[in-house]
Protein backbone atom coordinates (compact mmCIF):
# COMPACT_ATOMS: atom_id res chain seq x y z
CA UNK A 1 0.00 0.00 0.00
CA UNK A 2 1.41 3.46 -0.92
CA UNK A 3 2.27 5.68 2.04
CA UNK A 4 1.73 9.42 2.42
CA UNK A 5 4.62 11.83 2.79
CA UNK A 6 4.44 13.67 6.13
CA UNK A 7 6.44 16.86 6.77
CA UNK A 8 6.44 18.32 10.32
CA UNK A 9 5.68 22.03 10.68
CA UNK A 10 5.61 24.31 13.73
CA UNK A 11 2.48 23.58 15.77
CA UNK A 12 -0.17 26.28 15.74
CA UNK A 13 -3.31 26.02 17.86
CA UNK A 14 -5.04 28.67 15.74
CA UNK A 15 -5.06 27.79 12.02
CA UNK A 16 -5.38 31.42 10.87
CA UNK A 17 -1.73 31.99 9.99
CA UNK A 18 -1.44 28.82 7.95
CA UNK A 19 -4.76 29.35 6.21
CA UNK A 20 -3.84 32.95 5.35
CA UNK A 21 -1.13 31.57 3.07
CA UNK A 22 -3.66 29.81 0.80
CA UNK A 23 -7.06 31.38 1.41
CA UNK A 24 -7.18 33.10 -1.99
CA UNK A 25 -6.30 29.85 -3.78
CA UNK A 26 -8.95 27.91 -5.73
CA UNK A 27 -10.86 25.51 -3.52
CA UNK A 28 -9.43 26.86 -0.25
CA UNK A 29 -11.06 25.07 2.68
CA UNK A 30 -10.56 24.92 6.45
CA UNK A 31 -12.18 22.40 8.78
CA UNK A 32 -11.59 24.00 12.14
CA UNK A 33 -11.62 22.54 15.66
CA UNK A 34 -11.97 26.04 17.16
CA UNK A 35 -8.82 25.81 19.29
CA UNK A 36 -7.44 27.11 21.54
CA UNK A 37 -10.78 28.29 22.97
CA UNK A 38 -13.05 25.38 21.98
CA UNK A 39 -12.14 22.20 23.85
CA UNK A 40 -13.70 19.19 22.13
CA UNK A 41 -12.32 19.20 18.60
CA UNK A 42 -9.03 17.48 17.82
CA UNK A 43 -7.99 18.24 14.23
CA UNK A 44 -7.76 21.19 11.86
CA UNK A 45 -7.60 20.39 8.14
CA UNK A 46 -6.46 22.99 5.59
CA UNK A 47 -6.21 22.47 1.84
CA UNK A 48 -6.56 24.12 -1.58
CA UNK A 49 -5.91 23.53 -5.29
CA UNK A 50 -8.05 20.39 -5.68
CA UNK A 51 -7.17 18.00 -8.50
CA UNK A 52 -10.83 17.98 -9.50
CA UNK A 53 -14.07 19.64 -8.37
CA UNK A 54 -17.32 17.69 -8.31
CA UNK A 55 -20.68 19.48 -8.03
CA UNK A 56 -24.10 17.86 -8.12
CA UNK A 57 -25.77 18.49 -11.50
CA UNK A 58 -29.37 19.82 -11.41
CA UNK A 59 -31.06 16.51 -12.31
CA UNK A 60 -28.44 14.11 -10.98
CA UNK A 61 -29.59 11.50 -8.50
CA UNK A 62 -27.88 11.08 -5.15
CA UNK A 63 -26.73 7.62 -6.22
CA UNK A 64 -25.13 8.91 -9.41
CA UNK A 65 -23.42 11.78 -7.60
CA UNK A 66 -22.08 9.51 -4.87
CA UNK A 67 -20.79 7.15 -7.56
CA UNK A 68 -18.89 10.12 -9.06
CA UNK A 69 -17.43 10.85 -5.63
CA UNK A 70 -16.29 7.24 -5.38
CA UNK A 71 -14.68 7.59 -8.80
CA UNK A 72 -12.89 10.73 -7.62
CA UNK A 73 -11.43 8.81 -4.69
CA UNK A 74 -10.42 5.96 -6.99
CA UNK A 75 -8.71 8.42 -9.33
CA UNK A 76 -6.52 9.60 -6.45
CA UNK A 77 -5.85 6.04 -5.36
CA UNK A 78 -5.24 4.42 -1.96
CA UNK A 79 -2.71 5.69 0.55
CA UNK A 80 -1.98 4.84 4.17
CA UNK A 81 -0.53 6.96 6.95
CA UNK A 82 3.08 6.17 7.90
CA UNK A 83 3.47 3.59 10.65
CA UNK A 84 2.68 4.96 14.13
CA UNK A 85 1.40 8.23 12.61
CA UNK A 86 -2.21 8.94 13.51
CA UNK A 87 -3.81 10.99 10.72
CA UNK A 88 -7.47 11.78 10.04
CA UNK A 89 -6.89 12.38 6.32
CA UNK A 90 -4.52 10.92 3.74
CA UNK A 91 -5.97 12.63 0.68
CA UNK A 92 -9.52 12.52 -0.64
CA UNK A 93 -12.73 14.55 -0.66
CA UNK A 94 -13.47 17.76 1.27
CA UNK A 95 -16.62 19.76 0.67
CA UNK A 96 -20.26 20.25 1.59
CA UNK A 97 -23.72 18.80 1.19
CA UNK A 98 -26.48 21.41 1.34
CA UNK A 99 -29.64 20.55 3.25
CA UNK A 100 -31.48 20.47 -0.09
CA UNK A 101 -29.36 17.53 -1.25
CA UNK A 102 -31.89 15.61 0.84
CA UNK A 103 -34.39 16.13 -2.00
CA UNK A 104 -32.29 13.68 -4.01
CA UNK A 105 -32.66 11.07 -1.27
CA UNK A 106 -36.28 11.43 -0.17
CA UNK A 107 -39.57 12.42 -1.90
CA UNK A 108 -40.11 16.14 -1.36
CA UNK A 109 -42.51 18.84 -2.58
CA UNK A 110 -41.16 21.88 -4.42
CA UNK A 111 -42.80 24.72 -2.48
CA UNK A 112 -39.93 26.57 -0.80
CA UNK A 113 -38.22 29.06 -3.12
CA UNK A 114 -34.58 28.47 -4.10
CA UNK A 115 -33.54 32.13 -4.05
CA UNK A 116 -29.86 31.59 -3.11
CA UNK A 117 -29.01 29.15 -5.95
CA UNK A 118 -26.29 27.36 -4.01
CA UNK A 119 -25.36 24.02 -5.63
CA UNK A 120 -26.72 21.13 -3.58
CA UNK A 121 -23.22 19.66 -3.16
CA UNK A 122 -19.65 20.51 -4.05
CA UNK A 123 -16.46 18.60 -3.27
CA UNK A 124 -12.83 18.86 -4.21
CA UNK A 125 -10.44 15.94 -4.63
CA UNK A 126 -7.43 17.02 -2.55
CA UNK A 127 -3.99 15.43 -2.73
CA UNK A 128 -2.65 17.23 0.37
CA UNK A 129 -3.72 18.73 3.67
CA UNK A 130 -2.10 20.64 6.48
CA UNK A 131 -3.25 18.75 9.58
CA UNK A 132 -2.95 20.13 13.10
CA UNK A 133 -3.50 17.58 15.88
CA UNK A 134 -4.40 19.48 19.03
CA UNK A 135 -4.22 16.39 21.21
CA UNK A 136 -0.57 15.78 20.33
CA UNK A 137 0.16 19.45 19.55
CA UNK A 138 1.58 18.80 16.09
CA UNK A 139 1.11 20.43 12.69
CA UNK A 140 2.05 18.40 9.62
CA UNK A 141 1.87 18.70 5.86
CA UNK A 142 0.35 15.43 4.63
CA UNK A 143 0.82 14.67 0.92
CA UNK A 144 -0.70 11.83 -1.06
CA UNK A 145 1.89 9.87 -3.12
CA UNK A 146 0.33 11.20 -6.33
CA UNK A 147 1.33 14.77 -5.46
CA UNK A 148 4.51 15.67 -7.34
CA UNK A 149 7.63 16.38 -5.28
CA UNK A 150 7.87 19.87 -6.80
CA UNK A 151 4.40 20.65 -5.46
CA UNK A 152 5.30 19.30 -2.03
CA UNK A 153 8.33 21.58 -1.94
CA UNK A 154 6.23 24.53 -3.07
CA UNK A 155 3.78 23.92 -0.19
CA UNK A 156 6.59 23.59 2.34
CA UNK A 157 8.01 26.91 1.19
CA UNK A 158 4.56 28.49 1.32
CA UNK A 159 3.94 27.40 4.91
CA UNK A 160 7.48 28.04 6.14
CA UNK A 161 6.73 31.55 7.38
CA UNK A 162 2.95 31.89 7.59
CA UNK A 163 1.62 35.31 8.46
CA UNK A 164 -1.77 36.94 8.62
CA UNK A 165 -2.73 38.60 5.35
CA UNK A 166 -3.54 42.29 5.03
CA UNK A 167 -6.99 43.29 6.19
CA UNK A 168 -7.38 46.08 3.63
CA UNK A 169 -10.68 44.69 2.32
CA UNK A 170 -12.50 44.79 5.66
CA UNK A 171 -15.83 43.00 5.97
CA UNK A 172 -18.88 45.02 6.96
CA UNK A 173 -22.66 45.06 6.68
CA UNK A 174 -24.43 47.80 4.77
CA UNK A 175 -27.49 47.43 7.00
CA UNK A 176 -28.43 45.38 10.10
CA UNK A 177 -29.78 41.84 9.80
CA UNK A 178 -33.49 41.52 9.10
CA UNK A 179 -35.66 38.44 9.55
CA UNK A 180 -37.46 37.12 6.48
CA UNK A 181 -40.66 36.49 8.47
CA UNK A 182 -42.30 38.44 11.27
CA UNK A 183 -43.59 37.16 14.61
CA UNK A 184 -47.13 36.73 13.27
CA UNK A 185 -46.02 34.46 10.44
CA UNK A 186 -43.72 32.58 12.80
CA UNK A 187 -46.62 31.95 15.18
CA UNK A 188 -48.82 30.74 12.31
CA UNK A 189 -46.15 28.25 11.29
CA UNK A 190 -45.79 26.88 14.83
CA UNK A 191 -49.55 26.51 15.18
CA UNK A 192 -49.70 24.70 11.83
CA UNK A 193 -46.96 22.29 12.99
CA UNK A 194 -48.85 21.63 16.22
CA UNK A 195 -52.01 20.91 14.22
CA UNK A 196 -50.04 18.35 12.21
CA UNK A 197 -48.80 16.79 15.47
CA UNK A 198 -52.35 16.62 16.86
CA UNK A 199 -53.49 14.97 13.62
CA UNK A 200 -50.81 12.30 13.99
CA UNK A 201 -48.67 13.36 11.02
CA UNK A 202 -45.53 13.77 13.10
CA UNK A 203 -44.07 14.06 16.59
CA UNK A 204 -41.60 16.88 16.11
CA UNK A 205 -40.65 19.36 13.37
CA UNK A 206 -37.56 21.56 13.30
CA UNK A 207 -38.67 24.99 12.11
CA UNK A 208 -36.17 27.73 11.23
CA UNK A 209 -36.19 31.36 10.21
CA UNK A 210 -33.62 33.17 8.09
CA UNK A 211 -31.89 36.49 8.76
CA UNK A 212 -30.23 38.48 5.97
CA UNK A 213 -28.07 41.58 5.55
CA UNK A 214 -26.27 43.23 2.61
CA UNK A 215 -22.50 42.98 2.99
CA UNK A 216 -19.18 43.91 1.45
CA UNK A 217 -15.58 42.85 1.94
CA UNK A 218 -13.58 39.74 2.69
CA UNK A 219 -15.67 36.92 4.28
CA UNK A 220 -12.52 35.43 5.86
CA UNK A 221 -12.36 38.47 8.14
CA UNK A 222 -16.00 37.89 9.07
CA UNK A 223 -15.15 34.28 9.92
CA UNK A 224 -12.22 35.36 12.08
CA UNK A 225 -14.47 37.69 14.09
CA UNK A 226 -17.17 35.04 14.46
CA UNK A 227 -14.64 32.41 15.52
CA UNK A 228 -13.32 34.68 18.26
CA UNK A 229 -16.85 35.37 19.53
CA UNK A 230 -18.16 31.81 19.28
CA UNK A 231 -15.46 29.10 19.06
CA UNK A 232 -16.91 25.66 18.31
CA UNK A 233 -15.40 22.21 17.65
CA UNK A 234 -16.98 21.57 14.22
CA UNK A 235 -16.37 24.92 12.56
CA UNK A 236 -15.28 25.48 8.99
CA UNK A 237 -14.63 27.95 6.20
CA UNK A 238 -15.08 27.04 2.54
CA UNK A 239 -14.38 29.53 -0.22
CA UNK A 240 -16.95 29.68 -3.02
CA UNK A 241 -16.62 31.28 -6.43
CA UNK A 242 -17.06 35.03 -6.96
CA UNK A 243 -15.87 36.00 -3.49
CA UNK A 244 -18.50 34.06 -1.55
CA UNK A 245 -17.92 31.63 1.31
CA UNK A 246 -19.50 29.27 3.82
CA UNK A 247 -18.80 30.36 7.40
CA UNK A 248 -19.72 27.64 9.87
CA UNK A 249 -19.51 27.83 13.67
CA UNK A 250 -21.18 24.50 14.29
CA UNK A 251 -21.10 22.75 17.67
CA UNK A 252 -22.63 19.55 16.26
CA UNK A 253 -21.04 16.44 14.77
CA UNK A 254 -23.12 14.66 12.14
CA UNK A 255 -21.36 11.37 11.35
CA UNK A 256 -17.87 10.12 12.11
CA UNK A 257 -16.52 6.91 10.61
CA UNK A 258 -13.14 5.61 11.75
CA UNK A 259 -11.90 2.04 11.25
CA UNK A 260 -15.46 0.87 10.80
CA UNK A 261 -16.79 2.56 13.96
CA UNK A 262 -19.67 5.01 13.44
CA UNK A 263 -20.69 7.83 15.78
CA UNK A 264 -23.27 10.61 15.63
CA UNK A 265 -23.85 13.25 18.32
CA UNK A 266 -27.27 14.93 18.02
CA UNK A 267 -28.05 18.19 19.80
CA UNK A 268 -31.61 18.73 20.95
CA UNK A 269 -32.35 21.05 23.86
CA UNK A 270 -31.04 24.60 24.39
CA UNK A 271 -30.86 27.25 27.10
CA UNK A 272 -29.16 30.67 27.00
CA UNK A 273 -26.08 31.22 29.15
CA UNK A 274 -26.72 33.12 32.36
CA UNK A 275 -25.54 36.65 33.11
CA UNK A 276 -23.61 35.42 36.18
CA UNK A 277 -22.39 32.09 37.57
CA UNK A 278 -25.50 31.46 39.69
CA UNK A 279 -27.90 32.18 36.85
CA UNK A 280 -25.79 30.17 34.42
CA UNK A 281 -25.85 27.13 36.71
CA UNK A 282 -29.63 27.46 37.08
CA UNK A 283 -30.08 27.51 33.29
CA UNK A 284 -27.93 24.40 32.91
CA UNK A 285 -29.81 22.55 35.65
CA UNK A 286 -33.15 23.58 34.14
CA UNK A 287 -32.11 22.10 30.80
CA UNK A 288 -30.82 18.87 32.33
CA UNK A 289 -34.06 18.45 34.28
CA UNK A 290 -36.46 19.43 31.51
CA UNK A 291 -38.82 16.56 30.66
CA UNK A 292 -39.77 18.32 27.41
CA UNK A 293 -36.17 18.70 26.21
CA UNK A 294 -35.26 15.16 27.25
CA UNK A 295 -38.29 13.83 25.37
CA UNK A 296 -37.30 15.80 22.25
CA UNK A 297 -33.73 14.53 22.49
CA UNK A 298 -34.91 10.95 22.93
CA UNK A 299 -37.14 11.20 19.82
CA UNK A 300 -34.13 12.16 17.73
CA UNK A 301 -31.92 9.49 19.32
CA UNK A 302 -34.50 6.88 18.30
CA UNK A 303 -34.64 8.32 14.77
CA UNK A 304 -30.84 8.19 14.47
CA UNK A 305 -30.70 4.64 15.79
CA UNK A 306 -32.97 3.75 12.89
CA UNK A 307 -30.87 5.77 10.38
CA UNK A 308 -27.61 4.16 11.49
CA UNK A 309 -29.28 0.77 11.42
CA UNK A 310 -29.57 1.04 7.63
CA UNK A 311 -25.80 0.88 7.23
CA UNK A 312 -24.52 -0.67 10.47
CA UNK A 313 -24.10 -4.29 11.44
CA UNK A 314 -27.27 -5.74 12.98
CA UNK A 315 -27.14 -5.50 16.76
CA UNK A 316 -24.21 -3.06 16.84
CA UNK A 317 -26.13 0.23 17.30
CA UNK A 318 -25.79 1.59 20.83
CA UNK A 319 -26.48 4.79 22.81
CA UNK A 320 -23.33 5.24 24.93
CA UNK A 321 -24.25 8.77 26.08
CA UNK A 322 -27.70 10.21 26.74
CA UNK A 323 -28.64 13.77 27.79
CA UNK A 324 -25.14 15.15 28.35
CA UNK A 325 -24.61 18.88 28.89
CA UNK A 326 -22.35 20.82 26.52
CA UNK A 327 -21.82 24.55 27.04
CA UNK A 328 -20.79 27.22 24.53
CA UNK A 329 -20.30 30.99 24.82
CA UNK A 330 -23.97 31.76 24.11
CA UNK A 331 -25.93 28.58 24.96
CA UNK A 332 -26.09 25.30 26.87
CA UNK A 333 -27.03 22.21 24.80
CA UNK A 334 -28.39 18.75 25.60
CA UNK A 335 -26.35 16.22 23.59
CA UNK A 336 -26.48 12.44 23.13
CA UNK A 337 -24.31 9.94 21.29
CA UNK A 338 -25.36 7.05 19.04
CA UNK A 339 -22.76 4.57 17.75
CA UNK A 340 -22.51 1.44 15.62
CA UNK A 341 -20.23 -0.70 13.46
CA UNK A 342 -20.40 -0.32 9.68
CA UNK A 343 -21.84 -3.40 7.98
CA UNK A 344 -19.83 -5.39 5.45
CA UNK A 345 -20.29 -4.16 1.89
CA UNK A 346 -21.16 -0.62 3.06
CA UNK A 347 -19.03 2.51 2.85
CA UNK A 348 -19.12 6.08 4.17
CA UNK A 349 -21.32 7.30 1.32
CA UNK A 350 -23.85 4.54 2.01
CA UNK A 351 -23.86 5.73 5.62
CA UNK A 352 -24.56 9.31 4.52
CA UNK A 353 -27.26 8.21 2.07
CA UNK A 354 -29.09 6.41 4.87
CA UNK A 355 -28.82 9.26 7.37
CA UNK A 356 -28.85 12.61 5.52
CA UNK A 357 -29.99 15.19 6.48
CA UNK A 358 -29.43 14.74 10.20
CA UNK A 359 -32.52 13.93 12.23
CA UNK A 360 -31.76 16.56 14.87
CA UNK A 361 -32.53 19.31 12.34
CA UNK A 362 -35.53 17.74 10.58
CA UNK A 363 -37.84 16.14 13.12
CA UNK A 364 -39.65 12.82 13.41
CA UNK A 365 -40.66 10.96 11.39
CA UNK A 366 -38.00 12.44 9.13
CA UNK A 367 -39.60 12.44 5.68
CA UNK A 368 -42.92 13.89 6.86
CA UNK A 369 -41.07 16.50 8.93
CA UNK A 370 -39.03 17.51 5.86
CA UNK A 371 -42.21 17.86 3.82
CA UNK A 372 -43.74 20.13 6.47
CA UNK A 373 -40.54 22.20 6.61
CA UNK A 374 -40.77 22.69 2.85
CA UNK A 375 -44.37 23.81 3.18
CA UNK A 376 -43.86 26.29 6.02
CA UNK A 377 -40.37 27.74 5.50
CA UNK A 378 -40.72 30.20 2.59
CA UNK A 379 -37.21 29.63 1.19
CA UNK A 380 -34.90 26.65 0.87
CA UNK A 381 -32.27 26.19 3.54
CA UNK A 382 -29.23 25.95 1.23
CA UNK A 383 -26.17 25.24 3.41
CA UNK A 384 -28.10 25.53 6.69
CA UNK A 385 -28.56 22.09 8.29
CA UNK A 386 -26.44 20.46 5.60
CA UNK A 387 -22.92 19.21 6.32
CA UNK A 388 -19.23 20.07 5.93
CA UNK A 389 -17.19 16.90 5.70
CA UNK A 390 -14.05 15.10 4.65
CA UNK A 391 -13.81 11.54 3.34
CA UNK A 392 -10.35 10.17 2.66
CA UNK A 393 -9.09 7.35 0.42
CA UNK A 394 -9.02 4.93 3.38
CA UNK A 395 -12.73 5.50 4.06
CA UNK A 396 -12.14 7.69 7.15
CA UNK A 397 -14.80 10.41 7.48
CA UNK A 398 -15.92 13.14 9.81
CA UNK A 399 -18.73 15.63 9.28
CA UNK A 400 -20.66 18.43 10.94
CA UNK A 401 -24.24 19.57 10.80
CA UNK A 402 -24.08 23.13 9.53
CA UNK A 403 -26.08 24.92 12.19
CA UNK A 404 -24.76 28.33 13.40
CA UNK A 405 -23.68 28.71 9.78
CA UNK A 406 -23.69 31.71 7.47
CA UNK A 407 -23.59 31.93 3.69
CA UNK A 408 -21.90 34.91 2.03
CA UNK A 409 -23.04 35.02 -1.58
CA UNK A 410 -24.07 37.62 -4.15
CA UNK A 411 -23.54 40.63 -1.88
CA UNK A 412 -25.51 39.39 1.11
CA UNK A 413 -24.94 37.26 4.18
CA UNK A 414 -27.60 34.82 5.40
CA UNK A 415 -27.91 33.15 8.78
CA UNK A 416 -30.56 30.77 10.12
CA UNK A 417 -31.87 29.94 13.58
CA UNK A 418 -34.37 27.25 14.49
CA UNK A 419 -35.53 24.65 16.95
CA UNK A 420 -37.61 21.53 17.43
CA UNK A 421 -41.36 22.06 17.77
CA UNK A 422 -43.46 19.55 19.72
CA UNK A 423 -47.07 19.44 20.91
CA UNK A 424 -46.50 21.55 24.02
CA UNK A 425 -44.08 24.08 22.53
CA UNK A 426 -44.79 27.72 23.32
CA UNK A 427 -44.36 29.77 20.15
CA UNK A 428 -42.97 32.79 22.00
CA UNK A 429 -40.28 30.70 23.69
CA UNK A 430 -39.41 28.98 20.42
CA UNK A 431 -39.23 32.32 18.62
CA UNK A 432 -36.84 33.67 21.24
CA UNK A 433 -34.74 30.49 21.16
CA UNK A 434 -34.31 30.75 17.38
CA UNK A 435 -32.86 34.23 17.92
CA UNK A 436 -30.78 33.32 21.01
CA UNK A 437 -28.94 30.59 19.08
CA UNK A 438 -27.59 33.03 16.48
CA UNK A 439 -27.66 36.34 18.35
CA UNK A 440 -23.92 36.34 19.02
CA UNK A 441 -23.24 35.74 15.31
CA UNK A 442 -25.54 38.50 14.10
CA UNK A 443 -24.33 41.03 16.65
CA UNK A 444 -20.68 40.24 15.97
CA UNK A 445 -21.03 41.04 12.26
CA UNK A 446 -23.14 44.12 12.96
CA UNK A 447 -20.30 45.52 15.08
CA UNK A 448 -17.65 45.14 12.37
TrEMBL record:
Any one of the GO BP annotations: folic acid-containing compound biosynthetic process
Alphabetical keyword list: Transferase
Alphabetical list of Pfam families matching this protein: Anth_synt_I_N, Chorismate_bind
EC number: 2.6.1.85
An example molecular function term from Gene Ontology annotations: 4-amino-4-deoxychorismate synthase activity
Tree of life domain: Bacteria
Domain Anthranilate synthase component I N-terminal intervals: 13-138
Gene3D superfamilies: Anthranilate synthase
Start and end residues of each Chorismate-utilising enzyme C-terminal domain: 183-437
PANTHER family, A to Z: AMINOBENZOATE/ANTHRANILATE SYNTHASE, AMINODEOXYCHORISMATE SYNTHASE COMPONENT 1
NCBIfam families recorded: pabB
Protein name, entry field: aminodeoxychorismate synthase
